[in-house]
Amino acid sequence: MYRILVLNGPNLNMLGTRQPEIYGRDTLDDIDALCRQTAEKFGACADCFQSNSEGALIDRIQQARGSYDAIVINPAAYSHTSVAIMDALLACDLPVVEVHLSNIHRRDEFRHFSYVSKAATGVICGLGKKGYVLAVEAAVSLVKGE
Ligand code: CA2
After folding, report:
1. pTM of the predicted model over 0.85
2. For residue 87, what are the domain limits?
């Protein structure tokens, strides 16, 4: 069975509590459940991990090599700042799908650039929770070589 690691960055544990007009009303638990269901539907399984710490995310990316077949990541604000997460993703040798709930290109200028996109196989943004469904589907498809 294909194994997908779903990573979520800082403040995404607050989903469903504030700014629903930008991020929707679902909690991170809802989104994690959706990712697991989607993975199962496509013959894979998903493990989900969130951290507010850059180092903890990097540790999980490093450990993913050999244990997972692909990574789906919403790096949240680290997208726009973290050369370290970009380097870890480049080194992990796995397909990477970057996902954002909001359309980062319609928002503040500082959100338009993502270091993580430089390490991503593909990027999905602006589709809310549906983006995670599509990202997991895309990750499985990449692993299958479709
Ligand atoms: O649109 C996305 O998914 C983002 O990755 C979300 C990040 C933001 O910094 C990126 O530019 C785009 C922010 C996540 C914060 O999530 C919260 C959710 C509820 C309440 C407060 C923050």
Report:
1. yes
2. 2-144
